[in-house]
Amino acid sequence: MALPWASPLRADFAADLARIHVEAIGGHDNVKALKAVHATGITRIQGRELRFALWAARPNWVRTEVTDEGRVMIQAYDGGNPPWIMDSKTGKVFEMGVAPARAFKADADFDDPLVPAGRGRNVSLDYAGETEIAGRPVFKILVTQNFTESAFVYLDHTTYLIIRRDAVRIRSGAAETVETWYDDFRPVKGVLLPYHLTEKLAGQVRSETVLERIDGNPALTPGLFTRPAVTAGK
C-alpha cells in the first residue's frame, strides 16, 4: 500500500527540512564533532523520583544507570550484541526481553533522525504535511528505520527544532503510540540538545526527565557498553 505522503517531491522537501534542522541545532561541523555525551539528571515516574546517569556515543552505543534507594539498574547496548541489564543488588546480568530490546535499540541512535550522519543507509524521510501542536505550527515528517520501524517527528515551524516524536511500541502484545516531547534546548559543544523530556501515553504523562548536566565528548571507559562476563543465575 502506497502512503499518500510518500512521493519524491515530499521526500525532497523532508530532506530540505532536515538540512535546515541541522543548521538550526548547530550546523554540520558541530554536530559531526559531537561524538559522545555523558548526562545526569532525574526521572519522575509513577510518583517516584529516580536519579540516573547516561552515556551515549555515535553511532548507537548507550548505557543508563538508574538509582533507586541505593539499588542501581544498568541497561546498555554496544551497537551489535543484544541489549543487556544488570542489577547491582544481585550482580546478575540478563539479556533484555525481545520487546524492550527492540524499543531500546530503536532509541539508541546517537543522532536525531534528521541528522544525516546518524541515519546511515536504512532511514528514509517523508514529508507528511503541516499541523499545530499546542498552538504552534509544525512540520510533520515520517521517519522509517530499517524498513520496519516508523515514527513521526514534529519540527517547529520557526525554530526548526524537534519538539515531539510519536513512536509505536509493542507492550503486552498490543501496539501503543508513545509521545516524547522535547524542550529546554541548550548548547552542548555548540549543538542544541533538549534538557527536558516528557513521555505521554494516551494523552497522560507517563514519565518526565530533567537533565541537570550534559558533558560533550567525555572520556569513555573501555568496555563501558559491553556486557560483563557474568551470567544470570537460574
Keywords:
234 residues; alpha+beta; 13-stranded antiparallel β-sheet; single chain
Question: Could you describe the 3D structure shown?
Answer:
The chain has about 230 residues and is of the alpha+beta class. It has a domain at about 10-35 and about 120-215. It contains four helices and 13 strands. It has helices at about 10-25, 30-35, 100-105, 115-120, and strands at about 35-45, 50-55, 60-70, 70-75, 85, 95, 125-135, 135-145, 150-155, 160-170, 175-190, 190-200, 205-215. Strands 6-5-4-3-2-1-13-12-11-10-9-8-7 form a 13-stranded antiparallel beta sheet, with helices on one face. The model is unreliable at about 1-5 (pLDDT under 50).
Q: In terms of structural class, how would the helical and strand content be classed?
A: alpha+beta
From the alpha carbons, calculate the radius of gyration and give it in angstroms.
Answer: 18 Å
Series of secondary-structure elements, N-terminal to C-terminal? HHEEEEEEHHEEEEEEE
Number of E-state strands: 13
Name the quaternary structure: single chain
Helix content: 10-25%
Query: How does the overall form come out from the CA principal axes?
Result: globular
Runs in which pLDDT lies below 50 for 5 or more consecutive residues are: 1-6
How do the strands of the widest beta sheet line up side by side? 6-5-4-3-2-1-13-12-11-10-9-8-7
